[in-house]
Amino acid sequence: MGSHVTEPSAERLQQRAEQIRQAEELLGSLPQTIGLAKGLFAGRLIADWVFPYPQLSINQKADTDAAVAELEAFCDRNLDPVRIDREADIPRELIDGLGQFGLLGMTAPAEFGGRGYSQMAYCQLLEVIGSRCSSTAIFVNAHHSIGMRGLLLFGSDSQRRRWLPDLVSGKKLAAFALTEPEAGSDASNVQTMAVPTADGQHFVLNGQKRYITNGAIADVLTVMARTPVAESDKTAITAFLVTPDMPGFQVTEPRMEKLGIRGTATSRLAFDNMHVPRENILGPIGKGLKVALTVLDFGRTTFGACCTGAAKTCLQLATDHAHRRRQFGRSLAEFELVQQKLVRMAAWTYAMEAMTTVTAGLIDRGLEDYMLETAMLKVWSTERLWAIVNDAFQIHGGAAYFTDLSLERMLRDHRINQIGEGANEVLMSFIALTGMRGPGLQMQAVSQSWKHPLRDAGLVYRFATDGARLRCCSPAVPLRSPELQRHGRSLGKQIRRFGATVQKTLVTHREEVLERQLVLERIAWMAMELFAAASTLSRLDSDLANNDRTHDAVARWCLADSHRRVEGLLRAMRCNDDDLLKRAASGA
């Protein structure tokens, strides 16, 4: 692969320095413990994060199964996605019913009126909603998973006592206000300012927010704003709890007209010298970025559950139609190209559910660092769901284009998934850079250690040992089923090769890797496919241990698909047309 190298301009160097500063602000707010995803970038499998496959306890499962059945019956009676889409509104009686059921505060502690559900159990309920109506699923996600999640995790006792009971019951609704004209996926670029008053008792907020789900109907909003850093000319992001009765709070557009998810109230907001009491600061002052990113972890996990529900609906619709519809004397299901689509849909749905369960399991275990896993889940599941919707559409042919079937609505509803809660392109760069940060810091420390070889001999030795491991030792995959050992060895080998590829990429590009988005995309997709394969293999191993072969062939095809994709990406790291693409783009 050739490379045309030019010296960066002074302006480009300044831009790169700003990129590095923003990346450090973002990554510095995150925990740095190694886990499943970060281990992959080092060529390791932190096996106990994914094996054995997470399971609800017997009592939890019985309670969750009953709640799922109850929610399905409630939705049969009360949830009309066609009406919601047509009228561009979620009826208040539906919201009240979901509140009475407990869905709007399912994971909250009982002391605040919640049912104390685990994240795994809650995801099963969100899957039910996601299978029926994307607008309702996003409304619930915006209220529970991100709107009031910051209050649950970072709120003071007085804040929680004041607001949680009404939010949990659904009497009041919550929203999460991060996105601005200059900040969305780039969460660190928030421009809304909050300046303390002279007596320090209030902060005066000025700024705008847009694309805020529930923004016009929420009673409590978590708002991100920049606050001054003491004895410095710098600012840092702080989270505030805001209510719409505060003077200066403005809803400039209550319901923005949209292509899909029409039932959600997506709003534009403005703050004009809005005084927010100091006691409404959520979490430590200046640590709002951590609040925002932690909250988004939960939203992305339930995002995976909603996508799984939608994928199951598409699969069922496509399967039924393929077996019922006859062309050229045969059912559609007898044609290989239709079979290819059906198997692909089934396999990706199986993997999507496995990844969601594994990720929710990390949260339930009380682990601190699962941000990479939630980002991977969000990107992988939304990209795969879009392909699944498209395949279901194609199998139905021209009939899918008409409004008497749900697929045209699903096509409109699910396009937003690759954009909301972090655009997938931005998240892929985040996944790659965050994952490579640990190996990069290690290499930087080793490089500096040559100045003091005797003092830092241990560091150099560990680096050399890790390098030797990446060349010849693949991580073991702990499987119970003997017939899956071959898949385990294959996965371990690819994890090792991926770690070596990460190391080589860092050596080749150094700090310029920030700008190598085509390289970062391949790195991110390899990591996501390895995560998908590990989750799928763990689930299949659990199925076989329980003598359940219902999804055996589909799961094995999924493993083969991920393996094939990783192999292709590894080859593309060495042989690609990136330079040709960039030359073509420069003349476009």
From TrEMBL:
Keywords: FAD, Flavoprotein, Oxidoreductase, Transit peptide. It comes from the Bacteria. Signal peptide: none annotated. Residues 482-574 form the ACAD9/ACADV-like C-terminal domain. Residues 175-274 form the Acyl-CoA oxidase/dehydrogenase middle domain. InterPro entries: ACAD9/ACADV-like_C, Acyl-CoA_Oxase/DH_mid-dom, Acyl-CoA_Oxase/DH_mid-dom_sf, AcylCo_DH-like_C, AcylCo_DH/oxidase_C, AcylCoA_DH/ox_N, AcylCoA_DH/ox_N_sf, AcylCoA_DH/oxidase_NM_dom_sf. Residues 286-432 form the Acyl-CoA dehydrogenase/oxidase C-terminal domain. The keyword Lyase does not apply. Residues 65-171 form the Acyl-CoA dehydrogenase/oxidase N-terminal domain. Its EC number is 1.3.99.-. It is an enzyme of class 1 (oxidoreductase). It catalyses: a 2,3-saturated acyl-CoA + A = a 2,3-dehydroacyl-CoA + AH2. GO terms for molecular function: acyl-CoA dehydrogenase activity; flavin adenine dinucleotide binding. One of its GO terms (biological process) is fatty acid metabolic process. Its cofactor is FAD. Belongs to the acyl-CoA dehydrogenase family. This is Putative acyl-CoA dehydrogenase. It comes from Rosistilla oblonga. The gene is fadE.
